[in-house]
Write a structure and sequence with these properties.
The complex is a heterodimer of chains A (about 250) and B (about 425).
Chain A (H helix, E strand, L loop, with lengths): L1 E10 L2 E11 L4 E5 L6 H9 L5 E9 L2 E2 L5 H7 L1 E4 L6 E5 H15 L7 H14 L10 E2 L5 H15 L3 E5 L7 H13 L6 E6 L12 E6 L2 E6 L2 H9 L1 H9 L4
Parallel strand pairs in A: 3-10, 3-11, 6-9, 9-10
Antiparallel strand pairs in A: 1-2, 1-4, 4-5, 7-8, 11-12
Chain B lengths: L2 H4 L17 H17 L34 H7 L8 E6 L2 E2 L14 E4 H6 L6 H5 L8 H9 L4 E5 L9 E7 L7 E2 L2 E6 L4 E10 L6 E10 L4 E9 L5 E10 L4 E8 L4 E10 L5 E10 L4 E10 L5 E10 L4 E10 L7 E10 L5 E10 L5 E9 L3 H9 L4 H17 L5 H14 L4
Parallel strand pairs in B: 1-5, 4-7, 5-8, 6-9, 7-9, 8-10, 9-11, 10-12, 11-13, 12-14, 13-15, 14-16, 15-17, 16-18, 17-19, 18-20
Antiparallel strand pairs in B: 1-2, 3-4
Helix pairs in contact in B: 2-6, 7-8, 8-9
Classes of the chains: A alpha/beta (about 250), B alpha/beta (about 425).
Chain lengths: ~250, ~425
């Protein structure tokens, strides 16, 4: 469903990703773990189509489409979603208006009719309940004045509204207390099914107690240095990232 | 005195200022305003207050006061240019600076509320406006306000007695034709709100053709104790025209003023805003939006003078500039020694849509009291790339995302307009103006 081969990317003279290979099949949840600076967030941003990175080598495909050739909006239309590590505040843009525009643009791109206003409101209210969001939330400007936790919940709320087939969660757990973490994980798990895939990027094992991955990858210095089942995450937590750093030093370059 | 001033007609030579047509006190007021205009002279870039706004293009006009329109104008023709067409209001229509009673509503207010043409009110010779127009504590501020006094023909006069509320917005539409001879219209509005009264006054400046002219408008507003006024100025003149305007307000104890400026048109538009917070606990909001393109320039120049303690003043100005257009924001807050517990806040934000657009901002705080809260902030920049990416990542195409960001930026200002129907209409207008082309 989603496949990256030998991806090299960086900014200006600095290379960040140094040959990533990753294949995710429909129905799977993968986790990417790694220390700060290993390239986790760069990977997330590049999947979503962020400008400003030089892709020097490699390919990235989603359902046979060359993603590197698509703008961020086209990726969203295809069903790719990024839950941002740092959701952006956009004062003056009402959350409901924004979501309606997003949903209808995606529908338009897929040849579906626009959703009418009444139906749409019912639809998003249900989704808001799922994420336990405050009542006035839909009327507020996007993320403006939200707490860190509210912003993260808003990301998963948007994910629930857009129902993407491939979702990338970039450190969605950072800044969440345990109750918020449960709510957010519940929201993510609701979207899990045999046709969809998820990529969970995190620094800590804790999130993976709630969003249980099929496969865990360890990213170090721009490369996936180890992959395994979820026991790998537990081992990482026990032994720390220095363990994989040492192990990766012995890998062939 | 510069050459260009010398060629302008003295008020004695104007047809309407003949002694038979108006009271002697007014003629003498015009003469002294003229003297003042001559003394100050034509502003140049060397004047600190005009550093960024070059008035040379104006000199190509033969600046003489406008004459009454030669051929009749229909109400439809005026309303077709009005952005507030169909909005419930009492409409007073002025063509080329002269009141057009046949096009205007006949406002009938009870309880002593007086809304009329200033020209007619002065002609009634009861002299009720004389003390305000001539008061020595109300000096003309700049050359153009003085020129307006020397030349004005008409405008709106509003007087609201204590504790009365004017139930409908008063909408003055100043529609003008360009003309080779007499291209300067001089609208003059005067509002007096007595204790505890309230009113909404809207001045709208529009063009009836694409020929160059100059609007030189003055609006004065006295806000009595606990009175409350909303003032809105919509300037949507043709890009061939020039627009100079002075808004001058005096606020007494616990009164409130919100004044909004929407600068959408004209080749050059300059707004001088002067607010004096004279009574304790008075509050004012100055709020403005300008949209410029081509080679146009929009300049807002304000001085907020905190005289009394415990007053609040907030200024918010946003501009969206494309092509080679220019924006100027000058905001001076003066906090006098007596004005303790002043709360003054000023922000100016501009969005540059082209590399060639330019904004000059000049905040100026001058504080002589020691217990005050004053802040100012200015941002000038391109559209927020992070925000654009965020919207695109949710499926919103780039041009739509850009439009959403611009609209939000404009909305911040428009949403401060209290009069609901007007606010909604102007939000639609702004959305239309910012539409992707």
């Amino acid at each position: 469903m989603f496949k990256i081969e030998n991806l090299h990317a960086g900014v200006e003279d600095k290379s960040i990703l140094k040959g990533i290979d990753l294949q995710i099949n429909a129905g799977e949840v993968h986790a990417v773990m790694g220390p700060n600076g290993s390239g986790k967030s760069t990977l997330a941003q590049i999947i979503a189509g962020r400008d400003g990175y030089d892709i020097t080598q490699g390919t990235m495909e989603f359902r046979g489409r060359d993603l590197l050739d698509c703008g961020p909006e086209e990726r969203a239309h295809l069903g790719v979603f990024l839950a941002f590590q740092y959701p952006v505040e956009i004062p003056g843009v009402n959350t409901t208006y924004f979501l309606k525009a997003a949903v209808n643009e995606v529908r338009k791109a897929r040849g579906l009719p626009e959703m009418d206003a009444v139906k749409f409101l019912q639809y998003i209210r249900e989704k808001a309940k799922l994420l336990d969001l405050p009542g006035d939330f839909l009327k507020r400007s996007i993320n403006t004045g939200f707490s860190g936790g509210e912003k993260k919940r808003n990301e998963i709320f948007q994910m629930a509204v857009l129902e993407p087939d491939f979702a990338v969660l970039d450190e969605t757990d950072s800044g969440l207390d345990i109750d918020a973490l449960k709510t957010v994980s519940h929201g993510v798990n609701q979207l899990r099914n045999a046709q969809r895939a998820q990529l969970v990027i995190t620094h800590y094992q804790r999130l993976l107690d709630y969003i249980v991955p099929d496969i865990v990858h360890v990213l170090h210095d721009g490369r996936i240095v180890r992959s395994g089942d979820r026991d790998l995450a537990l081992e990482l937590e026990k032994r720390g990232y220095s363990w994989v750093a040492e192990a990766s030093a012995t890998l062939p370059a | 005195m510069t050459d260009s001033v010398a060629t302008l007609p003295h008020p004695n030579d104007l047809p309407f200022s003949a002694p038979a047509a108006e009271p002697e006190w007014l003629s003498s007021l015009r003469r002294s305003a003229w003297d003042r205009f001559e003394r100050i002279g034509w502003p140049t870039l060397a004047d600190e207050d005009w550093r960024f706004t070059n008035l040379n293009p104006l000199k190509q006009l033969s600046l003489t006061p406008s004459r009454k329109p030669a051929s009749p104008v229909t109400r439809e023709a005026v309303e077709a240019r009005s952005l507030l067409k169909g909005i419930e209001a009492v409409r007073l229509i002025f063509v080329d600076g002269y009141f057009a009673p046949e096009l205007s509503d006949r406002p009938e207010f009870d309880h002593g509320i007086h809304v009329a043409s200033l020209g007619q009110a002065l002609g009634n010779s009861n002299g009720s406006y004389r003390p305000y127009l001539t008061a020595p504590t109300r000096p003309e501020l700049n050359a153009f306000a003085a020129l307006n006094t020397a030349w004005f023909a008409d405008g709106v006069a509003v007087s609201v007695p204590p504790r009365q509320t004017v139930s409908l917005p008063i909408l003055a539409i100043f529609a003008a034709h360009g003309a080779a001879e007499g291209p300067t219209t001089n609208p003059r509005n005067f509002l007096r709100l007595q204790e505890g009264s309230s009113a909404t006054f809207i001045e709208e400046h529009v063009s009836l053709n694409e020929t160059p002219y100059l609007t030189n408008a003055v609006t004065e507003c006295l806000v009595g104790e606990q009175a409350s006024v909303e003032h809105l100025k919509i300037q949507d003149q043709s890009p061939a025209t020039h627009h100079l305007a002075t808004f001058h307000a005096w606020l007494e104890r616990h009164s409130r003023l919100s004044s909004h400026s929407l600068a959408l048109g004209a080749r050059l538009a300059r707004n001088d805003l002067r607010v004096k917070l004279e009574g304790e606990g008075a509050e004012c909001v100055l709020n403005g939006l300008y949209l410029t393109d081509g080679q146009r320039l929009a300049d807002h120049h304000m001085v907020v003078d905190h005289v009394a303690p415990r007053c609040q003043s907030h200024e918010y100005f946003n501009g969206i500039l494309s092509d080679r257009s220019r924006g100027v924001f000058h905001g001076r807050i003066l906090v006098q020694q007596e004005a303790q517990k002043t709360d003054a806040k000023q922000t100016s934000k501009s969005l540059l849509l082209s590399d060639e657009a330019v904004v000059n901002t000049k905040p100026q705080l001058e504080i002589y009291a020691d217990d005050v809260k004053c802040t100012h902030g200015a941002t000038i920049g391109q559209m927020d790339e992070e925000a654009i990416f965020y919207l695109r990542a949710r499926g919103i195409p780039l041009p739509v995302a850009q439009q959403i960001i611009q609209l939000a930026f404009a909305e911040e200002i428009v949403e401060r307009i209290q009069e609901r129907a007007v606010r909604q209409r102007l939000a639609d207008v702004v959305q239309e103006r910012l539409k992707i082309t």
